[in-house]
Amino acid sequence: MGTWDDLADWWTAEIQDDPAYEGDVHPILTELLEGTSGRTIDLGCGEGQGMRLVGGDVIGTDLSMPLLKRAHATAPVVLAVLPDLTWIKDAALERAFSVYLVDLISDHETFFAETARIVKPGGYLAVVINHPVFTAPGSAPFIDEDGQVLWRWGTYFEPGSSSEPAGDGEVEFFHRPVADLLTAAASAGWALETMIEKGLSEETIARIPGYIGQEHVPRLAGFRWRKSPQSTVHS
Predict the structure, then answer these.
(1) Structural domain harbouring 106
(2) Which residue has the higher pLDDT, 166 or 179?
(3) DSSP string covering the chain, please?
(4) Domain tally for the chain?
């Protein structure tokens, strides 16, 4: 399994060549952050696409130096292994967001606790992930005897992980059912305001015929949480 330093060139080419990010992913993030503003951190910023989309007073953090070197052209960046955010002061930011991060880290409880610590009361956390229906180990499409494309849920209710091809290496995806994610966020002090569930766009399916028939399958999920204005920061 390669490191993200090893995968940096593959990832940069992947997001540049795949219009699904512009057509499927970015609209979700834009909708989640609508009406919010202020000092912002992009958690798992990669080469900086999220920071370029969001703009404004934003910084990024990632564990890959090659990716951060590219992202630094957009905004200030910090090398860190998430969910460790101990280098950020309490209540230092108005917003935090992540795209395709939470399903790549093993400790989602610390992710929610640390983001709640660094975001001011009344601030926001936006998260876009592969939908847990899609990441469950053993989940996959299948075709019934009538030719209808159905979805096999796999071990959806059990947290787990699976290794998926990525360039010349593999990436480990961590699966949790939606209930586990929402409960962990609530326990950290986040109040859910918006949840978005979407399948792939018509444009993406038309471009990749292998997805025909999967229009009804959840592939992306987005969440926006708000921290209570009365929250007390616990270091």
Answers:
(1) 4-130+177-227
(2) 179
(3) ---HHHHHHHHHHHHHH-THIIIIIHHHHHHHHTT--SSEEEET-TTSHHHHHH-SSEEEEES-HHHHHHHTTTS-EEE--TT--TTS-TT-EEEEEEES-GGG-S-HHHHHHHHHHHEEEEEEEEEEEE-HHHHSTT-EEEE-TTS-EEEE--STTS-EEEEEEETTEEEEEEE--HHHHHHHHHHTTEEEEEEEEE---HHHHHH-GGGTT-TTS--EEEEEEEE-TT-----
(4) 1
